[in-house]
Amino acid sequence: GDFLEEIDTLIVGSGPGGYVAAIRAAQLGQKVTIVEKEKSLGGVCLNVGCIPSKALIHAGHQANQMKNSNDIGIIADNVNVDFSKVQEWKQSVVKKLTGGVESLMKGNKVEVIKGEAYFSDDKTVRVTKDEYTTQTYKFNNCIIATGSRPNELPNVKWSERVISSTEALALNEIPKRLVVIGGGYIGIELGTAYANFGTEVVILESEKQILLGFEKQLSAPVSTGLKKKRNVEVLTHASIQSVEEQEERIIVTAEINGDTKTFNSNYVLVTAGRKPNTDKIGLEQTGVELDDKGLIKVDDQCKTSIDHLYAIGDVIAGPALAHKASYEGKVAAEAINGEPAKLDYIAIPSIVFSDPELASVGYTEKEAKEDGFDVNISNFSMAANGRALSLNESDGFLKLVTRKEDDLVLGAQIVGPSASEMIAELGFAIEVGMTAEDIALTIHAHPTMSEAAMEAAEIAIGTPIHAV
Ligand code: FAD
């Protein structure tokens, strides 16, 4: 049956955007209800994104490390992977975290409704709970956090074996051969993970380089690591002609620099961007404005064109990242309370959990120059970092971008082990407006990867110790 209930703050979607917004809104005294169509809370990130991918990447990395430890005296020639056990472990990690979100909702007195929301107008939402039950709710304020889904290519249809990241994370076997269409971070991360498990991987990227959002200087070591250490074929300028399915195998035909090549594969993973979930939720009945990509237009408080409707995360512009969604969730929740919260993306990091890892925050050299800054570039090689060498992983460097006139930290890029962790220090430096001298004067423990930040900062101010 259909009946009416009143809600104060409604949040649609429980991903890292929605659930974080719910908690902050509750902390501020709002009465919060969150609607989620899936059984499990946490959105793409916890269920089929960040977390399971990092678990799979870690397991693959472990297997690969063991297989390749001969040069440090560890002989483990016969490394076996029990993939169903890997999957079980990965799911247990997901379950801990989604269960954690469930408890956080309870703890913050956020009401959770499991069902699919559809806007009837800008004040009303209809929730389909199952085949037989729908319920209508009125709300005062709403945060739209419905996230995104994998983009299907027009000439490559999904099937049992032509899969998106969601299915690639849940395979019950290690494919013998895998073709990855798309060399963005998701394709590279999952391609690396399966290559580490022993799959023969081919990566087909349409652009001139993989990981296009990153400088060539950063993506090159990743490319080399894939080719030289994992026998992965990384092919750029590849245009997909056809994907033809036969029984147990798939033939992918691509044109690469004028040559037509075919690839024989057991699975094809398509990672060609993501599509915002803004098309099937009744938004047209709310008056909320979208841009030409279907993203919801918002102001610097995440407010849409309708005063009491907000939108956060993958449904709005900017990089589709979990920490961006969460940050916006907090801003939107505070804005509803009338607080002067305002979006500021100056220090938002982006990371690729490749091997070696990539991380970037703030300005790149090119962006800084384009914005008219006179910059200083300081590179410190991991080959001169004791910790990197003792980890037997010294490929990489830390690049610091500072403003020439006063050494203000504008940005940083890192390639190497733990780049994902190290980038936090540089983000912090940018956020509080530190100069290279501030970093150089901070005592960094030895031997650590993070000494590379101090070393690069010393280069910036002309007093390097371990570089000439
Ligand atoms: P989502 O996480 O997509 O959540 C939206 C939620 O809304 C979903 O639970 C959905 O079921 C629900 N929903 C949708 N429509 C309705 C409706 N009508 N009614 C009710 N509920 C609805 N980001 C990182 O920062 N780091 C990473 O390492 C990383 N790795 C990734 C790996 C993969 C394989 C993928 C696919 C993504 C990865 N991301 C990563 C991106 C990250 O997952 C997203 O940016 C993030 O989840 C976006 O959060 P969100 O809250 O906007 O939406």
Task: Kindly describe this structure.
Belongs to the class-I pyridine nucleotide-disulfide oxidoreductase family. Its cofactor is FAD. Strands 1, 2, 3, 4, 5, 6 and 17 form a seven-stranded mixed β-sheet that branches. Strands 8-15-9-10-11 form a five-stranded parallel β-sheet. A five-stranded antiparallel β-sheet has the order 18-19-22-21-20, sandwiched between helices. It has 13 helices and 22 strands. The protein has helices at 18-27, 43-48, 50-67, 83-107, 165-168, 185-197, 216-230, 322-336, 365-370, 386-390, 419-432, 436-441, 451-460; strands at residues 4-12, 32-36, 111-114, 116-121, 124-128, 134-144, 148-150, 162-163, 177-181, 200-204, 233-235, 238-246, 249-256, 259-265, 267-270, 274-276, 309-311, 350-352, 358-362, 375-381, 397-403, 409-415. It is 31% helix and 26% strand. α1 runs parallel beside α8, α3 (50-67) runs antiparallel to α4 (83-107) and α3 runs parallel beside α6. With 468 residues, the chain is an alpha/beta fold. A hairpin with a 2-residue loop joins β4 (116-121) and β5. The protein is globular, with a radius of gyration of 24 Å. Bound molecules: flavin-adenine dinucleotide. Flavin-adenine dinucleotide binds at residues 12-18, 35-38, 43-45, 49-50, 53, 116-117, 145-148, 165, 186, 277, 281, 313-314, 320-323, 325.
